[in-house]
Amino acid sequence: MFADIKLTIKQTSVYSLGNISTKLVGFILLPLYTAHLSTEDYGILAILQAIMQILIGVFGLNLPTAMMRWYAPEKDPEKQKSIVFTSFISTVGIAIILSVLLLPLNEQFSIRLFETRDFSSYFTFLFLAVSVGIVNNVPLSLIRLKEQSGFYIIVTTLKFTLIVLLNIYFVAIQKIGVEGIIISELIGHLFVIIITAPILLKNSIFKIDSSALIGMIKYGAPLVFSLVFTFILTLGDRFIIKYFYGDSSVGIYSLGHRIASVINMLILQSFQLGFIPIAYKKLNDPNAKRYFSKILTYYTLILVFSALVVSLFSQELIRLLATNSEYWISFVVVPIIAFAFVLKGIQYTFALSFHYTKKTGYSAFVFVLGAVINIALNIALVQKYGFLGAAVSLLISIFIMLILSYILGQKVYKIPYEILKISKIFFIGLLLYLISLALGGLEFWTLIFIKIALVSIFPIILYILNIFDKVELEGLQKGMKDFKNLF
After folding, report:
1. How many other CB atoms sit within 10 Å of the CB of residue 364?
2. How far, in Å, CA of 208 to CA of 482, rounded?
3. Helices assigned H by DSSP within 103-148
């Protein structure tokens, strides 16, 4: 089983490198953004990027994920190729229809959201970027299915480099700000389609599999609800903050959210990229359930450690990255959101039981309920506590979803998760962060030293409390050596 875990860690680590390149664009360019964009402009950018994610998630019909679920167990190469082509041509059709419907509405969107026609061109480029983004998810998913992680890194790194250079050109040189950032996204999506065209052609035959398409749509449709309400859960707070406090507060909150999202970017999304193809292939393995259980324990360890590091050093990091002091207050939301992402990672793993059994309706139910609770909490708490209330709402909502996902997931596909170990890991990390709060009045370098010490004693405490047994520790030590050799 440790061989399977090692493979998962390897795949996740490699995808993490690729994921860093695409997702770190906004993070690496924070000094550029905070120097050239006001807090209001940054808030507008956050709203537009939220809309982009929502539209890609909704209108993509989750076909790339469904393609993987249908492709993985299929043994006939010709059938596999027809599944790939069916998925690709379907997304192309969706993209064309979406462009035809939305492009004429760019002015209306600008007026509705920002009460001015001045941002009409922003929406033109945004809708085009959405259409192309829907299509390029298919070849990227195909690369994951083929376990060509090296090629995945090449593609995403080149896309990252291109977008960074374009951002610098449009924002710093051409001075077109938010519009230039959206144009950069559009060009980056187009680049992915061009560079992945050979692998797409090699693994496709020009044949539409209508029965597979119907099955994939039925599988993906409930997941669309999940995606929609996931976006409402994680992005809806921007719109509520905008309503009560304006674009400037959205910009400040979004910066704190982006810092905390390093966990989502480097670990959660990378884990999903590397783990899902392996999980689908292991479903019929007699040791699958024990494997899934152990993976969650180690996954939680990595998540909590990362959240602890990000939380402890968020204030210093924001002051380093943001040249505009108006952004500095955003550090207060980082720990809350960081630990919310830990819960999100655990919840996601519990919810995979719905995917294993193709009962994705349960997933839709959990996310719909979670999003409704989140919106209600946001409306209540944001009015009173500002963007801090939005962070607390996120944490509470995800915790409720975690409980629901565990209860329902165990009903459809029972997995003996190590709940006690997971709980201990989480609360030890949280306790160490709370200890740091009591030390806020200390001199800067003394405080930095203590924070480093708190990070260092985290694994020591886990060892003292016997969180992992001897066999697991030996396996982890061997895994760490293999991880170093990977690089």
Report:
1. 19
2. 42
3. 106-114, 120-145
pLDDT, residue 11, reads 57
Cα(394)–Cα(378) distance, integer angstroms: 8
Q: Among 69, 335, 388, 368, which residue's Cα sits nearest to residue 230?
A: 368
Among positive and negative, which fits the CA dihedral 466, 471, 472, 476?
A: positive
CA neighbor of 274 nearest in space, from 288, 295, 258, 259: 295
Residue 31 main-chain phi, psi, to 5 deg: -60, -40
Residue (of 245, 227, 376, 293) closest to 1 by Cα position: 293
Region class of 379: left (phi > 0), else alpha (psi between -120 and 50), else beta: alpha
Does residue 270 contact residue 14 with C-beta atoms inside 8 Å? Answer: no
Q: Are 152 and 144 in contact (CB under 8 A)?
A: yes
Q: CA-CA distance, 177 to 263, in Å (whole number)?
A: 27
Output the six-digit token pair for 39.
């807090």
Query: How far is residue 344's CA from residue 350's CA, in Å, rounded to a whole number?
Result: 10
C-alpha 172 chain-centroid distance: 28
Q: Where are the alpha helices (DSSP H) in 146-176?
A: 149-167
Quote the tokens at residue 332: 């207060």
What does pLDDT average to in each consecutive run of 10 residues of the chain (487 residues)? 58 57 61 80 84 83 81 82 91 92 92 87 93 90 78 83 89 89 92 92 89 82 70 77 84 86 81 76 78 88 93 87 81 92 92 81 84 90 90 93 93 90 93 86 82 91 79 61 53
